[in-house]
Description:
- With 223 residues, this protein is an alpha+beta fold.
- The chain has helices at residues 11-19, 52-56, 65-74, 83-100, 106-112, 198-213; strands at 32-33, 47-51, 113-117, 119-121, 127-129, 135-139, 163-167.
- Strand 4 (119-121) and strand 5 form a beta hairpin.
- It starts with 10 loop residues before the first helix and ends in a 10-residue tail after the last helix.
Amino acid sequence: MGSWRRSSVTEHELEALVSRGELPALTAAEEWRVPGDEAEPNPPAGYIVSFISFHERGFGVPADDFIRGLLHFWGLEVQHLNPNGVIHLSTFVVLCEGWLRIEPHWELFKLFFGIKLQQCKLGDDTKVPAPIGCAMLQLKSGMAAIYPRFTLLSSHSGWHNGWFYLKNDPQRPLPEYTGCVFQTSPSDWRDGPTDGMRDRVLTAVTKIKALRDAGLMASSRSG
Length: 223
């Protein structure tokens, strides 16, 4: 989590994402834009804010329906995520589609993951709401023994100033950028599966545990 810093992104860096298939190629439609000298984002109409490190870790566009739905449901904007959270989302999609052969399941995700609100620590150890990376996705208690093993990077130095403007797909829109800052953690950030869905979810959990026991591991870079 952190505060806004002037973007350090260059067109060359975004073209590198394009070359690796991590960002759409730039056309006359201006799929992305390099920020100017503004100290914090002020995206043009129809654009949101994204980060180089997110696309390096599996955040694709047009965004997956599961990820879009999750952000809308939890009231999150893209900048509220952090690099490790993007890894969790992208690997969960791969786990469902590639290994369980099902659509990414919202109720299953809520069984394993919740969000903890992070704040910025100032020099005097006081904490203030963080505009970036405040929604920390984490495995719930007891789930580490079931979910595929993974090792997340402890540091993503410099990711906060790697932001740029990304055109929001009107057919599959991500939440618009408002710059909102969470003062408190909404109660539904820790909700589990809804009533009536637990039996269906537990069937998938049995398969996930078997995959873990067989050695399935998640990448620390992307899904």
